[in-house]
Write a structure and sequence with these properties.
By secondary structure, the chain is α/β, with parallel strands linked by helices. The protein folds into two domains: about 270 residues, Rossmann fold (3-Layer(aba) Sandwich); about 190 residues, 3-Layer(aba) Sandwich (Rossmann fold). Helix content is about 40%, strand content about 20%. The chain has 17 helices and 21 strands. Helix 4 crosses helix 6 and helix 13 crosses helix 16. The chain is globular. The chain starts with a strand and ends with a helix. The structure holds adenosine-5'-diphosphate. The site of adenosine-5'-diphosphate has 17 residues, from helix 1, strand 16, strand 17 and helix 12.
């Protein structure tokens, strides 16, 4: 089979800039595709102010981007994804990108997010023209790249880019990018597209909807989420569009980057370990306690959390369950997260009340996130909705059975524990309530104290699971070929 040329456009790419799981995917799937022999190139904004980075080179030619009344100019930096030869092009245009926060400033979302990301889409395509590298497929992610397929179908349809197929991945349907129709003029997309069966929703441009209507094929990040978003309960108002495009939509589980997330090689840990020898994990637990100020209570299980603090993640359920959990169970908690101010306060307050038993680190720390995965006995993730979720997969591979709500990708990746049978990889519950979470934490706690053989089996089952990109990258390859074929016929 012939190799494909794949343009990958994302607002975040690990390790250059990361807000959530999208960055992990954008930093790792391209490597999986390159390993299958494809020519993948990644485009992402350059948000920093520092001019020079080791290993980065600026392209000689400036990039003209046809937006607004007059073209704008950008500088392009080229580097590669670490551990690979996959090129990453970072688009520098300070007026749009040089500011703290990828999506938000101190007062909420940046007011010009529509223009910023329309600029990214147009710049990515302009770069292809400049490099004389015409991809077979342009792969965009979430609302920020929703105008990419619209450009290909309208403004650029008559150019050499007009035959490029598009694939659009939904990582989180909740954020849709509502914008003033001015963004169409800015992107030079005809106003005739401002209609409900194209980019319009409720009198605004809906950039997510634009991507859903215009892309050749659609994917989302787990099979269960692919079903959920077609229903009124999970569709965030776009379920009719997703039912309409249902025949072009499939769910493919995200993989994890096992060169970064592997307890046998992870340099951020106090000690390394694998399924055959968990002594290193015990050292990681002791080190985590010391680092976070938890008491050295030889017996107690440590429950870890690493998450954005948002209602989607269900951590208000945890905050509500914790007072009773801390009172009744001999357990310890370490919580790392940032986001919602009310939740930050709730966890800080609980930490002050249960010093030595509950630690809350409000903020973002990649190092600590690895150490929590390794040093905990259980990982808590009570998400209300979870398109895929990566942290539960990291947890399983680190021998830390997750406690999750059975939704989206959590339902697809975690297997329910069966007592006394040595089966399962974690603990699932259904109802989004503090009560259900409280009971499930209790179930994990009793497993820890009363059924150590079962716990050992759970750990081993999770560590043996292959969550790497190998399989999913092949599924994406199939989708790309399916899209190329469909575009050829269009
Ligand atoms: P989402 O994309 O909804 O945030 P995922 O589980 O798919 O959820 O991905 C979250 C990613 O962000 C994981 O790699 C996780 O380790 C990381 N992460 C989230 N919060 C923090 C934090 N406070 N510090 C460090 N890493 C974090």
């Amino acid at each position: 089979m012939n190799a494909l040329k794949i343009l990958f456009v994302s607002p975040e790419v690990d390790p250059f800039v990361k807000v959530g799981g999208l960055a992990d995917m954008a930093g790792s799937l391209p490597k999986g595709l390159a390993a299958l022999g494809h020519d993948v190139r990644v485009v992402c904004p350059y948000y920093g102010l520092a001019r020079e980075r080791p290993g980065w080179t600026a392209l000689e030619e400036t990039l003209g981007v046809d937006v607004g009344p007059r073209a704008l100019w950008a500088r392009t930096w080229r580097t590669t994804l670490p551990g690979s030869r996959v090129p990453v092009y970072l688009i520098e245009h300070d007026a749009f990108f040089a500011r703290g926060g990828v999506y938000d400033g101190p007062w909420g979302p940046h007011g010009d997010n529509d223009l910023r990301f329309a600029f990214l889409c147009r710049a990515a395509l302009a770069l292809c023209q400049q490099l004389r590298w015409i991809p077979d497929v342009a792969h965009g992610h979430d609302w920020t790249t929703g105008l990419l397929p619209v450009l290909l179908n309208t403004t650029l349809r008559a150019t050499e880019l007009g035959r490029v197929a598009s694939v659009f991945t939904i990582h989180n349907l909740e954020h849709q990018g509502y914008a003033n129709p001015r963004v169409l003029d800015f992107a030079r997309i005809p106003r005739s597209e401002f209609r409900p069966d194209s980019v319009e929703s409720f009198g605004s441009v809906n950039m997510m909807k634009a991507g859903l209507y215009h892309s050749t094929k659609l994917t989302t990040v787990s099979p269960t989420y692919a079903r959920e978003i077609r229903t009124p309960e999970g569709g965030w108002g776009l379920d009719p569009v997703l039912r309409f495009r249902g025949g072009d939509l499939i769910g493919i589980l995200n993989g994890i980057d096992t060169t970064v997330w592997n307890p046998a090689t992870d340099r951020l840990l106090a000690a390394r370990y694998d399924e055959g020898d968990l002594r290193g994990k015990a050292l990681c637990k002791a080190a985590l306690r010391e680092e976070t100020g938890l008491a050295a209570d030889a017996d107690a299980p440590v429950f870890g959390v690493v998450s954005r603090l948002a209602s989607q993640k269900g951590l208000d359920l945890l905050a509500a369950a914790l007072p009773r959990v801390m009172e009744e169970m001999r357990v310890q908690f370490v919580i790392l997260g940032t986001g919602d101010a009310g939740l930050q306060d709730a966890f800080s307050g609980l930490a002050a009340r249960h010093r030595g038993r509950l630690a809350a680190r409000i903020g973002y720390s990649n190092e600590l996130s690895h150490r929590i995965q390794a040093g905990s006995d259980f990982f808590v993730m009570p998400s209300r909705a979870e398109p895929c979720g990566l942290t539960q997969m990291y947890a399983m591979n680190y021998g830390t059975p997750p406690i999750v709500r059975a939704t989206g990708g959590l339902a697809d990746t975690v297997e329910q524990y069966a007592e006394g049978k040595g089966l399962g990889t974690g603990f699932l519950f259904g109802e989004a309530s503090a009560r259900a979470l409280y009971y499930t934490i209790g179930w994990a706690c009793s497993t820890f104290y009363d059924r150590p053989a079962d716990l050992a089996a759970l750990r081993a089952n999770g560590m043996r699971k292959d969550f790497s990109w190998n399989r999913s990258a092949e599924r994406y390859e199939e989708v790309y070929r399916w899209a190329v074929e469909a575009r050829r016929r269009a």
